[in-house]
Design the sequence.
């Protein structure tokens, strides 16, 4: 604080960069001298990200070691097979293909059913012109988004258990057996996850599409109407192309995260009846690694495998999107 | 023009419109009904509720009963876990907000040499992370496991908040900062007396989103707090236990007259669901517009 103005004057004088030898060093010095309060302000955030984001990234080497809590990251011995022992063990595990397919299936179901749902809802809400009705609908459909995963799972358990309303409904349609609730039935379990995902996210995720639809020029619709375009023609030729960049952006991000779909929910609803269809790679890592101590290196390796796969999918989706629509996020 | 008018009011268009309104009404109902069902169930006689005598209203076929809540509140740590959840949420949101505001402000000032580099360091964390186990290891090595800090510090801050706040600070005209500088205000004073008050809408949105996320979170707590420290459990974890383990193991004071304690389980779970969602359900109607805004702000540069 002592001579703020003086320092400011100095820095203005130093503004043209690279004057002779040591110019770079000078600028650095002056920058630090003038801006130290700002760097001080960034410091806590920088520390936070280094400790809780970059340290764990570095910690991935655990997956290539036989990690020993007492010896830490630096003292632990490397795993066999040039460090890839845990990966090889996982690929040969009897559960590997089950986990792999379940992970892919949930990802694919989520992509095909959960992702397009808000687009449809957004289009529908956009064509409602009465403000009070729109408000009312939106208030209702947002609500599930703010309910916690544990609460959602408790509700699912409640509705789809042995005595639940949905089980009873399925029984009366002749679809479900008498002996158990549909949440325990491997035939229905995946669909319960998909439907509950749609239920929870459809309203909130439609906000972004409604906003994008609101940004489309009204005169386009008027012109189309004059040309005799009907409701569907307007949606197909104006609304959808108008929000296509938004859809593509969100789709790419969705592909990047699809392998981690709903692991909290799967873990909470998993039991011995449905575990064959409920266990994915993320659930496995959470259960074996985070809760059951001991298999740290092994589960780190599996988690890393999942991340690499996710990132490859993200890059792939981005590449396809760039080819098709000339827009991507990277 | 005539054609247009005719089109708008043609019978098929009116029919499509009616179907649309109806579909939306059904969707809206489907979103609200499960919660309503649980609310009614929590206030019903659990035994009768199980036989569908009170699906939608406790007044149909049953009377108002708060027994489920009575049993629930005999849980040894219930009050404590509510207090914990409030404390963890408040502390973590406050800490995260202060850290993010300071960083976002500094990174939007001009003439900061390492601005781009620092921003890049932060943005990268949106795309890469070390995964669950290394994250746990770091928290463990810091000695935070089984302390309240493990639920306050490690998840308090994220790149998206900083980006949102940066957008807020960038929206403030430069002239204001120049005036502040001429008046001799330093970085801290400018930030807390001038810049932050101008970004209140952004701050409200972030507080709301992080508040909901923290209140609802349970996965971190189940990793970082061992079963030996149930006194540190947040509410969601108590509900998790109610959901996943047998009610008779929870040490609740339930009358044992009519068979096993399990028959009361649905009612007790529903009561806990209502308690866990209560803060949200009460404030939701008032805060809805902020959530909407937040979604839009957050996605502009997501």
Sequence:
């Amino acid at each position: 604080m002592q001579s703020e103005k003086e320092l400011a004057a100095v820095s203005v004088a130093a503004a043209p960069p690279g004057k002779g030898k040591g110019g770079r060093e000078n600028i650095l010095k002056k920058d630090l001298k003038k801006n130290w309060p700002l760097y001080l302000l960034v410091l806590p955030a920088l520390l936070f990200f280094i400790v809780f984001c970059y340290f764990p990234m570095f910690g991935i080497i655990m997956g290539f070691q036989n990690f020993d809590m007492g010896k830490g990251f630096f003292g632990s011995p490397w795993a066999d097979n040039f460090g890839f022992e845990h990966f090889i063990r996982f690929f040969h595990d009897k559960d590997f293909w089950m986990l792999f397919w379940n992970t892919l299936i949930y990802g694919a179901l989520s992509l095909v059913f959960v992702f397009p749902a808000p687009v449809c809802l957004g289009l529908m809400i956009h064509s409602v012109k009465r403000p009070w009705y729109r408000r009312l609908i939106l208030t209702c459909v947002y609500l599930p988004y703010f309910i916690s995963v544990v609460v959602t799972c408790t509700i699912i358990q409640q509705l789809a258990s042995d005595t639940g309303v949905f089980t009873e409904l399925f029984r009366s349609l002749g679809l479900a057996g008498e002996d158990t609730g549909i949440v325990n039935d491997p035939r229905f379990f995946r669909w319960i996850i998909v439907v509950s995902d749609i239920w929870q996210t459809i309203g909130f995720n439609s906000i972004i599409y409604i906003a994008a639809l609101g940004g489309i020029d009204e005169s386009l619709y008027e012109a189309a109407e004059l040309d005799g375009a009907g409701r569907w023609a307007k949606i197909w030729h104006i609304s959808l192309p108008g929000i296509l960049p938004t859809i593509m952006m969100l789709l790419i991000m969705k592909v990047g995260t699809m392998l981690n779909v709903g692991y909290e929910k799967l873990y909470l609803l998993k039991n011995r009846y449905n575990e064959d269809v409920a266990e994915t790679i993320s659930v496995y890592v959470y259960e074996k690694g985070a809760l059951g101590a001991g298999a740290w290196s092994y589960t780190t390796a599996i988690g890393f495998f999942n991340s690499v796969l996710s990132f490859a999918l993200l890059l792939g989706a981005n590449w396809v999107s760039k080819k098709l629509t000339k827009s991507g996020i990277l | 023009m005539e054609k247009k008018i005719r089109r708008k009011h043609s019978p098929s268009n009116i029919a499509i419109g009616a179907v649309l309104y109806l579909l939306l009404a059904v969707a809206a109902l489907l979103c609200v009904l499960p919660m309503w069902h649980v609310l009614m169930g929590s206030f019903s006689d659990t035994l009768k509720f199980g036989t569908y005598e009170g699906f939608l209203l406790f007044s149909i076929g049953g009377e108002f009963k708060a027994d489920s809540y009575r049993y629930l509140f005999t849980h040894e740590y219930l009050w404590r876990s509510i207090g914990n959840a409030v404390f963890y949420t408040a502390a973590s949101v406050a800490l995260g907000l202060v850290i993010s505001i300071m960083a976002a402000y500094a990174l939007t000032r001009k003439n900061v040499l390492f601005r781009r580099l620092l921003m890049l360091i932060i943005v990268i964390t949106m795309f890469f992370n070390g995964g669950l186990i290394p994250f746990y290891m770091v928290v463990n090595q810091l000695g935070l496991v089984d302390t309240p800090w493990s639920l306050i510090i490690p998840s308090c801050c994220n790149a998206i908040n900083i980006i949102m706040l940066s957008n807020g600070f960038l929206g403030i005209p430069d002239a204001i900062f120049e005036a502040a500088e001429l008046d001799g205000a330093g970085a801290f004073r400018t930030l807390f007396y001038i810049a932050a008050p101008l970004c209140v809408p952004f701050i409200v949105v972030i507080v709301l989103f992080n508040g909901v996320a923290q209140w609802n979170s349970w996965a971190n707590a189940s990793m970082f707090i061992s079963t030996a420290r149930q006194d540190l459990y947040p509410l969601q974890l108590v509900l998790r236990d109610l959901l996943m383990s047998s009610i008779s193991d929870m040490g609740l004071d339930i009358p044992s007259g009519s068979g096993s304690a399990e028959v009361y389980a649905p009612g007790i779970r529903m009561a806990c669901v209502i308690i866990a969602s209560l803060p949200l359900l009460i404030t939701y109607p008032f805060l809805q517009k902020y959530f909407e805004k937040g979604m839009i702000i957050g996605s502009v540069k997501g």
In short: Chain A has two domains: 4-64, 95-325. Chain A touches chain B through 91 residues (CB under 8 Å). DSSP finds 16 helices and no strands in chain A.
